[in-house]
Specification:
heterodimer; A: alpha/beta; Rossmann fold; 5-stranded mixed sheet; B: 189 residues; 2 domains; 4-stranded mixed sheet; 40% helix
């Protein structure tokens, strides 16, 4: 395949964890180039590339950096915080980037620090990524004796298991030593972020790609991909597909080709039922819709969904969509931080109503209630966690209403015994402690 | 001198490590000093609370007893209650004892679509316990997405991720862990 490798360039399918090997393929050239440039020139290069955030929000990286005030305008320390708290179900690209090209990632951190005139880099890495943490520790140990860090300090900060900390203001709270609960915005992190100081928060893949933008030049990078979605993207392919894994492809790649050519098609000779194109919070596509879209911002927005974190979850014909909704909703219920009432209470309501429908105890009124609760969550909270549940569930109802209706008209799940999600255990109640130990059994089964 | 006979739960601790009474709890006084090192990495001390709790958990056999909150609070000039409020927010801090090995099976969408439930059931039958339970040798849990969706099913064994686990692999994993423990016991003897 003539796919340009940008993020994984020079790896030949392997890893670049030895500093000499990374230097042999031109490593740290981009950093030298950036440090020879004025900070504003680096930001201009990023703006020319039209690189947009790879964490899910697709915000232009250059513009984000340009919002950080110059040190003479705001005399507080400036911080670069890297969001390596990848936890959106379906998404596993950042961990492979950190494992395979740790130096390109750390080089990007130093380039970004130069651009926003920061001397302090914090990498907030999810706690479950123990191996990746160790790879970064080893990479930094190789960089220090070579003086590559200059006067910049890089601190690796491990998370401890909270999806919400992928939301940037919750991440900053957590990094400050508090419970990871989102803040009101404004002020935005660029003005008052970490320790109420100017802060840029960027995703691992965005930062790693910044290295490549400096290497290639912004204008050359912008030639890759399609309009409004330049460059390549590391797509996380999972679900009922033969070859799951991460694939770096240019934006604009047909979703169908990712599943059937790159991914080897649907596993076990089944047929395609639906695709979640950008992580579990993005609206679902039917098989027919999935055959029409390309993997870029405009095409997916046109189809009523989003590219999100570029995590493509493939679902075959065995899956019951009500069970899928229950499991997705249980995840958001479990991860709700509890700060905003519509999310804290609403996600629980969604799970309960969906479970009732799945069990065959639901009525027509429950369908109305389900969508009404979803509406009452959507857009009413500080962060989009609750919205994600509401939007995802509403999309399953919208696209597969017949299945929901069959659960209500009949006396149980029409897929019972044949669905791939039958009786899946969700860890909903596992975290609450009880002196009697009762919670050990407080599990919810789909 | 104290006017009452009340026990002071948080006696002031001298800054000089040599003047401090030897701390024999949970591996000795190193924890206090190591937390000071963690603290020095951050512009504000409060930021060290998570890494300090992580370290305390590691030193306490994988969970956080009441004493651990006192130790961390002591080292960072916080209250034990504050430290508990942090630990209770995050899934990876454990407020109850865990077994010698912690087995966590991801049951989020991509793993579930690929038979995670059968993997959970295989562990339940192999270990003779229900997901969520803890015994001396094992803790078995189901967890939310571990970030390995394309390599389903993901099972974290003592925080190390095993990829492409199927129900049929489970007896081998359990035997391997039990075998390692037995070899360890022989070495100790």
């Amino acid at each position: 395949m003539s796919t340009p490798e940008i993020v994984f360039a020079g790896t030949n399918g392997g890893v670049l964890t030895d500093i000499a090997e990374y230097e042999a393929v031109g490593g740290f050239g981009a950093l030298a180039k950036a440090r020879a440039m004025a900070p504003d020139e680096v930001i201009d290069e990023l703006s020319t590339s039209n690189l947009r955030g790879r964490g899910g929000a697709f915000f232009p990286t250059g513009r984000k950096w340009s919002f950080v005030p110059k040190p003479d305008k705001l005399d507080r320390p400036h911080y670069l915080v890297v969001n390596a708290d990848e936890s959106e179900p379906g998404t596993f690209k950042d961990r492979e980037i950190m494992q395979r090209v740790p130096f390109r990632f750390l080089e990007g951190c130093l380039i970004a620090a130069h651009a926003i005139e920061s001397k302090h880099v914090f990498v907030y890495i999810r706690g479950e990524y123990e191996l990746e943490f160790e790879v970064l520790v080893a990479a930094l140990a190789q960089m220090r004796p070579r003086g590559l860090l200059g006067d910049v300090t890089v601190v690796l900060h491990r998370g401890a298991g909270a999806y919400i900390c992928g939301e940037e203001t919750a991440l900053l709270e957590s990094l400050e030593g508090k419970r990871g609960q989102p803040r009101t915005k404004p002020p935005f992190p660029a003005i008052a972020g970490l320790y109420a100081s100017p802060t840029a928060v960027n995703n691992v893949e965005s930062i790693t790609t910044a290295t490549s933008v400096l290497e290639l030049g912004g204008a050359n990078y912008a030639k890759l991909g399609v309009e409004n979605s330049t460059g390549t993207r590391v797509f996380s392919l999972s679900g009922n597909v033969v070859n799951g894994g991460n694939y770096e492809l240019p934006h604009g790649f047909p979703l169908r080709d990712l599943i059937y050519d790159v991914g080897g098609g649907i596993a076990n000779g089944r047929s395609l039922k639906a695709v979640i194109p950008g992580g579990s919070s993005t609206p679902i596509l039917t098989a027919e819709e999935a055959g029409r879209v390309t993997l870029d911002f405009d095409s997916l927005v046109g189809a009523g969904t989003a590219i999100g974190s570029a995590a493509v979850i493939v679902i075959d014909d065995r899956c019951c969509m009500v069970q899928l909704a229950v499991r997705v909703s249980q995840f958001y219920e479990h991860e709700s931080c509890g700060k905003c009432t519509p999310c804290r209470v609403g996600t629980k309501w969604l799970s309960r109503i969906l479970q009732k429908i799945e069990d065959g105890r639901g009525s027509q009124a429950d369908m109305d209630l389900l969508l009404s609760v979803a509406e009452r969550i959507n857009g009413k909270c500080l962060c989009p966690l609750g919205d994600s549940d509401a939007i995802a569930v509403a999309s399953y109802v919208d696209k597969f209403r017949d299945e929901f209706q069959a659960h209500i008209d009949g006396t149980g799940c029409p897929f019972e015994g044949g669905s791939s999600l039958d009786h899946v255990l969700a860890p909903v109640m596992m975290h609450s402690a009880s002196p009697t130990g009762e919670t050990l059994h407080g599990l919810a089964r789909v | 001198m104290k006017a009452t006979g009340l026990h002071d739960p948080f006696p002031a601790r001298p800054d000089d490590p040599d003047e401090r009474p030897a701390d024999t709890r949970n591996g000795g006084s190193r924890l206090y000093d190591e937390i000071q090192e963690l603290r020095s990495r951050y512009p504000e001390a409060l930021s060290a609370v998570m890494p300090a709790l992580q370290l305390a958990q590691e030193r306490n056999g994988g969970w956080l007893p009441e004493q651990a909150f006192r130790d961390v609070a002591d080292a960072l000039e916080l209250t034990p209650a504050y430290c508990l409020s942090i630990a209770s927010f995050y899934d990876m801090f454990r407020l109850e004892p865990v077994g010698a090995h912690v087995i966590e099976v991801c049951t989020n969408i991509s793993c579930a679509l690929n038979g995670a439930q059968q993997v959970v059931e295989a562990f339940e039958s192999e270990l003779g316990m229900t997901a969520g339970e803890t015994g001396a040798a094992f803790t078995l849990r189901t967890v939310e997405c571990l970030g390995g969706c394309g390599w389903a099913t993901i099972v974290a064994v003592d925080n190390r991720h095993r990829l492409h686990v199927q129900a049929g692999d489970v007896p081998g994993i359990v035997a391997e862990l039990q075998g390692a423990d037995e070899r360890g016991a022989h070495v100790d003897a």
